[in-house]
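TICKET: design request
STATUS: open
ATTACHED STRUCTURE:
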């Protein structure tokens, strides 16, 4: 079986790692940062990320709307969040946010790993209308990281 694609992008953010972590681990609030995800809700009484916690993600592309099943697979508050995404009982992707402190702020890396099989490739195309998932996801990650940077960094001088 051929290796499925993986895409990572990194950005330096002039803000504390804890502030960036709060943004990327707020899955219901991710809709304000992502061009495709519109948010969602924690399931099973959960109120935030922890290993094993489930989340129902909401997504849109143009007029198309769909939801996904998410399970947190790694959670190190302030540093790492990873979750698997599925739909209709089939694997879709794994998303990871790694936040590393650095002088003056932090570095955040967002990684997408494609986990779809042939059936989900077709279902995903029909649900989202995105023909080139790799190119779209690369642009989406860049958009999301730019939004995280803008939201996390303190406002510049005024006046």
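STATUS: resolved
RESOLUTION: sequence designed for all positions
ATTACHED SEQUENCE:
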């Amino acid at each position: 079986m051929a290796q499925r694609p993986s895409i990572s992008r990194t950005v330096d953010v002039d803000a504390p790692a804890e502030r960036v972590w709060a943004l990327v681990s707020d899955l219901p609030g991710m809709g304000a940062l992502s061009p495709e995800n519109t948010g969602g809700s924690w399931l099973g009484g959960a109120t935030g990320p922890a290993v094993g916690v489930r989340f129902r993600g909401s997504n849109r592309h143009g007029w198309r709307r769909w939801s996904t099943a998410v399970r947190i697979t790694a959670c190190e508050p302030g540093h790492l969040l990873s979750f698997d995404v599925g739909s209709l009982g089939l694997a879709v992707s794994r998303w990871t946010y790694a936040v590393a402190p650095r002088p003056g702020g932090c570095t955040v890396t967002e990684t997408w790993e494609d986990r779809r099989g042939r059936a989900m490739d077709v279902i995903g195309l029909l649900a989202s209308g995105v023909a080139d998932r790799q190119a779209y996801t690369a642009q989406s990650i860049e958009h999301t990281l730019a939004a995280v940077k803008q939201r996390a960094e303190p406002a510049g001088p005024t006046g």
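CLOSING REMARK: The mean pLDDT is 87. The first helix runs from residue 17 to 24.
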